[in-house]
Amino acid sequence: MQTSPLTAELLKVLAAGLLLISFAMLSRRRTQRLITLFAWQGAILFASTCIVAHSSGLTELYYSAALTLILKVIALPWILHRLIQRLGARCATRTLVNIPTTMLVGLVLVIFAFGLAQPISMLATTITRHTLGIALAVILLSFLMMITRRKAVTQVIGFLAMENGLFFAATSATYGMPMVIELGIALDLLVGVFILGIFFFQIREQFDSLDLHHLEALKED
Description:
Elements: H1 5-27, H2 31-56, H3 60-87, H4 99-123, H5 132-148, H6 152-174, H7 179-207, H8 213-216
């Protein structure tokens, strides 16, 4: 499939922006800023999916882009902002590992992701195959953010950012997933966020804190 060099370069720029946002999420402590960065991730996914849809001629990707815009740029950030307002979780969150060490580990994960994706990228035939390494790096960096944060809300944001990386990887390797699967995942995400919201309220009501280390103190009678 032929594509203009400008389109390919623009996709690479968007992929680089996605990776930079993932590093920014590793360095941020305030929950509100993490939600804003998550929304920017969704905006980049929306733009990249539209470009791929236009270049490949696959109209179903426009529906995927619209779903990304509604869910990840508008709905989920709004729900998360409302959630932290109700929970009073606007303060800076503590990390298990200091930020400089986390960033160094993140760099190692990026190198590992590019090495892992190189043979897969050579087999892929999509116009976004060269961004597969970045997609895997976003997944690993999001997982790193999850395991280095103590607050429940920030771990959920890390999980949602990981799903962004999975979506970008699917678009890079195979022009995305079937619409039925994407709709199912979108519904699961919405339901999951609502359930976790209830779970957060229960944690705060029980321990007056959202720090997950309190759960480690629970023992069976």
